[in-house]
Each structure stands twice: as structure tokens, then as C-alpha cells.
Amino acid sequence: MSQILKKIITRLPPSPTGNLHVGTARTALFNYIFAKQNKGEMLFRLEDTDKARSKVEFEEDILAGLGWLGIDFDQSKMFRQSERGDIYKKYLEKLIADELAYFSKEKVEKEGDRDEVIRFKNSNKKITFRDTVRGDIEFDTTELGDFVIAKSLEEPLYHLTVVVDDFETGVTNVIRGDDHISNTPRQILIQEAMGAPQPIYTHLPLILAPDRSKLSKRHGAVSLIEYKNQGYLPEAMVNYLMLLGWNPGTDQEIFSMSEFLKEFDLNKIQKGGAIFDIVKLNWVNKEYIKKMSDVDFKKNIVDFLPEKIKNKDENLLIKILSVIKERIDKFSDVTNIVEAGELDYFFGMPDLKKEDLIWKEDGADIAKQHLDKVIEILEKIENFSSENIKENLWDYATKQGRGSVLWPMRFALSGQQKSPDPFTLAGILGKKETLERIKKAIDILC
RNA sequence: GGCCCUAUCGUCUAGUGGUUAGGACAACAGGUUUUCAAUCUGUCAACCAGAGUUCGAUUCUCUGUAGGGUCACCA
């Protein structure tokens, strides 16, 4: 009979001393997906033993961020370390009774220091543990000394609480950032002292800033909420984060959550840190935007729309949005486009300058001639759709030189150096407005 | 500085004891329904260095170098 497989339990233990960091978000994803793949469970706890720095608003941000990414877990099992004082106390007392920890008199060096703390009695041995990503890692724990595990029986510190909680909640796999590698020997020492089993360790390479240092505030946005506020899609964020430090070994770049659930492999994690590249994130996000239906696009972007667009009537709004959709990487980009005046032709007759209406070396007469002809053709069109307009104008434009005909027309309609093509513009503006704008351009050319 | 970790195009990465070292993003050039966007095609671009093992190393070993992490009565 084969052994009974233990249920895989992973955990996400953020400290509510800041908003959800993108690094924590990626760690959460790996923990969540690995647990789910194995029909296990990811536990969530808040490491708030530092009372001075822990804040409820950060708790809320972390929870909201995980929810945004689509990481769900059993909230009824969530707890705060600050609520478990009695449990840690019990373990501390046992450790002290077993003479594996002791009260130690200290000299007070900085404000807030106590004159007595609880130290772990270090046996000063060498510890070797196996890391999924890097293989065996050896540490001589002598250098750690008798480290402090609690300020008092009522005030346990990080290493103690981590070990106790992982033990009590049956954590089988610890998946966390690289920066915890050097914490691991200390935690193993405590585990051994308590007779707790050792979980399987997987240390993830760090997400780096462009200068290859640890990603922090000074490098710009590090909180997930900032990306949400900038109008990135959660699916895109998940997709991008998952590919930092892991890849399936195929050419696939875009994954849904269910594909990740199928493809992800904890054994194929990268060793080296990866730079958080906003340019690639933008590309991924745009891929997701391109796949969105117009209805979804509208629903998602509406909160980012400037008032003067939001108030347009439904029909025009749909058309404007279709122009916007192919020009942005993320929703907040719409603000820049509008502020730069790129969409001004939707809001009224553009200001036209004579020189701008003329294609290259054509001269005003030629531009005017072409526009006269364009009007003649357009006036006959019944169904004023962009396809139809194009069909009717195409032969003429091709014969005369597309630039010569199409540039003045496009400029007459948009008044912009950059804009969609003239057929699209005419279709959006409608027959009446289109003819008016072209006539005005002709006046200017005279 | 001690300890620990890491090292393939600018970036994310694939890959192998013998490959034209592959893909994606970016950049650049060109095509497409002028311009912008989108799209298509193409170009540029990498195995940190030195020894050793080997018939042969980007790949294995060692050393060096560089970068990063960590050294709290924070987590």
C-alpha cells in the first residue's frame, strides 16, 4: 500500500506594513497556483507582530489586490499573528522549559529596546537544506549567535511566529522570495527545537528594478494598486508576473489562469532575478485589450474617460472608443491622448492651416482640385459608411496619387498630423459634417 | 566586510558536450489603405573572464570578476 499523500498546504504571509507589492503579488500567484494544481490549499495570514508599522489600511489593500488578481482563498481561515499571543507564548515557555531558549539581560542601545529579551540557544551547527530552485544550500549557523526570538513572552518576533504558524497550520511548502534564503537556517533551527517538520523550501528569484537592485518605491510604481489605477487589466498583470521567473519552455506568451493551472511547473523556476520591464507589461496589456469585445472595453475604460468624451451620445461614443482602443496600452493612456488634442476632431471643426492641407510638393491648386472632386464623389454616396466611402474614392485616389488626394482629405477632416485614415474619419463624422469640413478646407486653400 | 545566491541578445527567456545558439519585447528598415495606430516581412543583437576535464566546451569543474540578497529587540 502506498503512503497517504499529505495535502499540499502553501501560505501567503504578508506583513501589513505597506500596500501589496508586485513581488508579493507574484509570490502569491505561485503559491496559489501550485497549491491549486495539487488539489491543496493556500493559507493566508497577516504577520503584524510589528505593531508600530502594521496598519489596517494596508491589510485592506493587500486583500483587495489579491481579489483583483483573482486569487481566492478561504477567508475564514485567515488570521492575524497579533491575535495569537497565547499560542506563541505557549511555545516560548516550552522552549524555555526545555532550555532551548532563555531570558537574556541586555544593555539598552536604542530607544524602545528592552533590558531583557528571549534568545534562542543556538547549537552552532551546520545546516543544509534543499531548495527546489537551487539545490542544497549550506549554512554555518555559528555566525547567527543566540538570536532573539521574542522581546518578551507576550511579544514574539518574526522567526518564532513563522515557524509556529507554519507548523500549526500544516504548511508543507514554503514558496517565498529569495531574500528569505538567509532566514531559512534560523527557522530550521527553531523547527528542530520544537520538533516541527521541515517544509519544502522554494525560493523565488527577486523581481528587480531596471538597475538590478531590489525593486522599491524609488523606482516608481511597486504597489499593485498603482497598476490597477493606471488601468492595467488584472489578467495582463497576472500573465506578466507569472512569466517573470518562470516559463513553460514553449513560445507561448499569453496565458489564461486556467492555462497557467495546467502548465505551471514549480520545478522550472529561474535562478536569476528578473527586471520588471514596464514596456513588456504594456505589450501584454495591449494584447489583452485587443482581445476585448467593444462592450467589455467600454465597461472597463469608462472610469478613465474625460468628461468631454463620456458625455457624447451612445453612437458617437462607440465610434470614438474604437479609435481609442487601438491607440492605448492601458486605460489611463486615454487621458494623454485627449490632452494632446489627438481626438479634437471629434469635438468640433478643426483649425486648418493652408500649408498642412497640401501633400508634399503639390501646391494649393492641386489640393483644391482633388478636394472638389472628393466632394463631388461623396455627395453621390447614399450609404455613408467608411467601407462605402473608400470603395467610391479608391479609384480616383489611386489614379491621382493616394497621398495627393487622401492627405488633404484626411487633414481637412482631422486637422491633425496623426489620425485614423480619411475613410474611417468620414464614416464617423457623417456625410453632412464631412462635406462641411472639406468645403471649409477648400475655402482656406483659395 | 562576513555569509548566501546569481551570471545566454538592451529586457524576459529557450537550448545543447558537436546547433546557422531559437523565440518574445524593444530598436531599426521596408510592405500594406497617404499620416498615427494596428498588421506583415526583414535587420541588428547574447553564451562575463581565465584555467582545467575533453577529440571538442556556451554547456561539466575550479578560480576570478561583476551584480544581487542578507547580516534588527522589522518582517
Task: Note the quaternary state here.
Answer: single chain
CATH architecture descriptor of the domain at 355-445 = Orthogonal Bundle
Kindly identify the CATH topology of the domain at 355-445: Arc Repressor Mutant, subunit A
* Percentage of residues assigned to helices: 40-55%
Globular, elongated, flat, extended or rod-shaped: what is the shape? Answer: elongated
Biggest sheet details: 4 strands, antiparallel
Number of helices: 18
- The first-level CATH class of the domain at 355-445 is given as Mainly Alpha
Query: Beta-strand level of the residues, as a percent range?
Result: 5-15%
Terminal CA distance: 96 Å
Strand order of the largest sheet: 4-5-8-9
Please mark out the parts with pLDDT under 50 across 5 or more consecutive residues, or reply none. Answer: none
GO molecular function, one term: ATP binding
Pfam families: Anticodon_2, tRNA-synt_1c
Enzyme class: ligase
Catalytic activity: tRNA(Glu) + L-glutamate + ATP = L-glutamyl-tRNA(Glu) + AMP + diphosphate
